[in-house]
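[job 4471] stage=fold_predict status=RUNNING
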Amino acid sequence: MKKNKILTILLSLLMIISISCEKDWLDVNTDPNYPSNVSPELVLPSAINSATAVIGGEYNLVGGIWSQYWTQSNSANQYKDYTNFSLPATTVDRQFRELFSGALNDFNYVLQKAEESEDWGLYLISNVMSAYVWQVLADMYDQIPFNEALQGSSNIHPHYDDGQTVYDSLIARIDRAISKDLSVSSVSAIGNKDFIFSGDYDAWIQFANTLKLKIYLHQVYARESISNTGITALLAENNFLEESANMDIYEDITGKSNPLYEADRRALNTTQNIRASSTFMYWLQQNGDPREPFIYEESVNGGWGWLVHGNHEAPTIDVNPADVSRAVLEATDPVQLISLTETYFMLAEAHLRYGSATTAQTMYEAGVTEAFAQFGLDASSFIGAGGVYEYPAGTFNENLEAIMMQKWAALARFQGLEAYFEHLRTGYPRISTVDFEDASYTAGEFTVPINSVIGDNFPKRFPLVDSEISRNPNAPTAANITAPVWWDQN
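[job 4471] inference complete, writing structure tokens
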């Protein structure tokens, strides 16, 4: 929607290229090439692009595999560590460093300059975007460098803060940003330098409130009273996203494509790694869901076929790859930070817990409708009376499961990491007690990959990255990836 205005900005292209290259000199606190005096309006697009390239690239890939939308092909092996849950400390190390030395450093610079000049619009954007990145990192690692991070040479060995501390601080930071009086700020000409909302500060305040809603929902089982108070206040204000918070600037040109498409379809020696997982494809087929061809390509031999999730070696090694569907990835796919359909499902859950039961159903139906509409499809027959996705007139748990299952379906292709966080938080989709090929298997339930290196367990966090283990003496002892993060208490 904003392509014609901003695709010529060189910083965007340079940042995408930089993320595809190894940068051993990067550290979470120092950047020797970091400029000391640059207009913050010029740094903002670099920061946004750094964040979205990582979150919409490798993080979306891992989340898509762990959420069982995608699985590793049996004709290649690029991502088998993700399907096997065999994650060394080097896993997504480069992406971790990029978020600190790139995105967060840049956002911090913009914040400081905006506060000095009382440019509260620029301050709002950089504050909300940095909060989004911090929240993702806290969910992935539980403990992260936070209060002592981004101090440059004055503190090259920052202590780590726990996820709860990070969450509380993020709420305070967001509240501080949205409390500023934008009408009296010395507003800069941000315009097309803002890749998300083109300088629409009302939309950024809605994004801020929606991010707060997510932060409160994530901790609903860990600190119910905190979530109740925060969510109730947000529902009363009722000022949430009315459009998706997307990075939607990509072209089908090398170096200007969606970051996952760029990394997987352009940069590798094969384009066949990401294939249809049995878990999600079977669920779509069992429900007669028309979204299937927007998630998976027709196989070479015709039709839509899957691999049993994670079973890219024996026994499915003998399955003809030409019978298996490849994941749909488009060069022009947006990077979705918080989509409108995700917003609707968050509101459905929030109202189910603390608001209006009637509104919970309304938001659920809006979420399904939007999830279909993004592909030009009509959901009315699915959510209407007798439809396969009709909102249940049932118990709290039945309603919650319906919301979360449709949220899982809606996040496919674009928001795999958030889908996996939601599985950890709520337990939906459920985990099957039988193999996929067992006659009693229930469509949509996660199955344990046959080649998993952690038995019947599932990852609860990412491993602490190698660069921190080797360089930062204040890094915590690496936790097992099966250890839950602080809010995962359901």
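[job 4471] summary: Residues 1-34 have pLDDT under 50 and may be disordered.
[job 4471] exit 0
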